[in-house]
């Protein structure tokens, strides 16, 4: 499959819409991929003419994601969230697709290394998740086989429940999930408010920080 045929699926909720243009700004600064599927509830992003926009309507996180994925016309997809802001150039190139297809993977995660992962090295900068590793189901940036991910999403789950309980369900079955360490983005928002990493990125790039983006507690 050609890299240009593989969509980047970004799943968000309307109450995070104040961050959409910021994500778009950083993504276009560091990434050249143009095949983007943007999944929201009802609100339309300002850049809707540059992406494929899917509306899911309201509902629990899992319900909305399943609705959105059912309208993604590709079995392979990159999955991301709106609070992953790139901090350096990331190449959307054929290498990741080739690894995925040659190894017949279920998921290829490309993100910063997390201490709780249990991994076995299988190549240079390439690792396999052990069968019972924590966070085999993670929402960090990954290339997924869509039908595989869909099996482990329940409509009534929120994202935190899905990572924890979805991992338990996933680890009950054989899986083939690989990992490439690459700290190419920051997680910038927590429960709707900017983390310090997000504040720093906006200040460094002279982007206005609105009052509703900062916690007052």
Kindly describe this structure.
Helices cover 26% and strands 24% of the residues. The longest helix is centred in the last third of the chain and has 13 residues, at 159-171. The protein has a single domain (3-213), classed as Spore Coat Polysaccharide Biosynthesis Protein SpsA, Chain A, CATH 3.90.550. The chain has a nine-stranded mixed β-sheet. A two-stranded antiparallel sheet has the order 5-11. The chain is globular, with a radius of gyration of 17 Å. The mean pLDDT is 96. The protein starts with 7 loop residues before the first strand and ends in a 13-residue tail after the last helix. It is an alpha/beta fold and 217 residues long. The relative contact order is 0.18. It contains six helices and 13 strands.
Helices and strands, with pairings:
Blueprint: E1 8-11, H1 20-30, E2 36-40, E3 52-55, H2 61-69, E4 76-81, E5 84-86, H3 94-102, E6 107-111, E7 119-123, E8 126-129, E9 142-145, H4 146-151, H5 159-171, E10 177-181, E11 185-187, E12 189-190, E13 193-194, H6 196-204
Parallel strand pairs: 1-2, 1-4, 2-3, 6-10
Antiparallel strand pairs: 4-9, 5-11, 6-9, 7-8, 8-10, 12-13
Name the descriptors:
single chain, 217 residues, alpha/beta, Spore Coat Polysaccharide Biosynthesis Protein SpsA, Chain A, two-stranded antiparallel ribbon, 6 helices, 13 strands, globular
């Amino acid at each position: 499959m050609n890299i240009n045929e593989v969509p980047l699926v970004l799943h968000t909720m309307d109450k995070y819409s104040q961050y959409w243009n910021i994500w778009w700004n950083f993504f276009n600064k560091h990434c050249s991929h143009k095949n983007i599927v943007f999944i929201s509830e009802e609100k339309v992003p300002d850049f809707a003419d540059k992406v494929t926009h899917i509306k899911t309507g309201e509902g629990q996180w899992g319900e909305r994601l399943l609705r959105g994925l059912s309208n993604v016309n590709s079995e392979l997809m990159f999955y991301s969230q709106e609070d992953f802001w790139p901090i350096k150039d990331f190449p959307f190139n054929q290498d990741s697709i080739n690894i995925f297809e040659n190894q017949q993977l279920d998921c290829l995660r490309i993100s910063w290394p997390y201490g709780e992962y249990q991994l076995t090295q299988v190549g240079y900068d390439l690792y396999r998740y052990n069968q019972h590793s924590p966070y085999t189901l993670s929402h960090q940036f990954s290339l997924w086989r869509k039908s595989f991910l869909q099996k482990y999403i329940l409509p009534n789950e929120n994202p935190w429940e899905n990572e924890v309980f979805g991992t338990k369900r996933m680890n009950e079955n054989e899986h083939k999930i690989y990992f490439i360490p690459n700290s190419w983005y920051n997680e910038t928002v927590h429960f709707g408010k900017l983390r310090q990493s997000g504040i720093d990125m906006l200040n460094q790039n002279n982007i206005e920080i609105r009052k509703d983006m900062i916690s007052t507690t």
